[in-house]
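Q&A log
Question type: sequence-to-structure
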Amino acid sequence: MSRIGKQPIEIPTGVKVTVDNLLVTVAGPKGTLSRNILDVVTLDITDKSLSVKRVDDSIKSRAAHGLTRTLINNMVTGVTKGFERALEINGVGYRAEMKGDVLALSLGYSHPINFQLPKGITVEVDKMTKLLVKGIDKELVGQTAAKIRDFRSPEPYKGKGVKYADEVILRKAGKTGKK
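Response status: OK
Response body:
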C-alpha cells in the first residue's frame, strides 16, 4: 500500500471539499480549485479529514493512489496558505518591473520581454532583481516560475540570468583557469 496515499488529509476550518462524480472542488479563504480524479480511486470524506482509497489492486490504481492524495492535499494547502516561488535576476542591466498584469523583463536582449501573467498568479518585484511568484495552484506557480526562468537561464561562467533563489549554479573556469 502507498505510504503517502494511506495518510489522511486534514481539512482545516473554513475549507469545504466537495466531490461531484469525478470532480473534486476545494473552496477556502484564498479561492477555489477544481480537479478531475481518476475512477480507480475513491474518496471518503468526514467532517475534519479526507482519505483516498483504491478501488482494486491494479497497477493503474496503485499508481494513482499516492498521486491523487498529494494533488488534493496541495489543493487544500493552496486555498489556505497559498504557494510562492522566489526568483533572482543576476547581470548588469538585467531587471524586471510590473506593468499592470504584465511582467516587463530586460534581460540583455535587443528588446524587452513582456510576459502576460496567467490568471490567478501575482508577481511581486523587489529592487528590480528579486521576483516572488505567488498563487493558490502549486502547478501553475511552478510552471510560471519556470517560464520566467527560461527567458534567460543562468550561464555557468558568470552566473548571469534568471535563477531560482535556492538554486546553486555550478561555475566553470574560463579559458585562463585551465592551468
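Response note: The radius of gyration is 21 Å.
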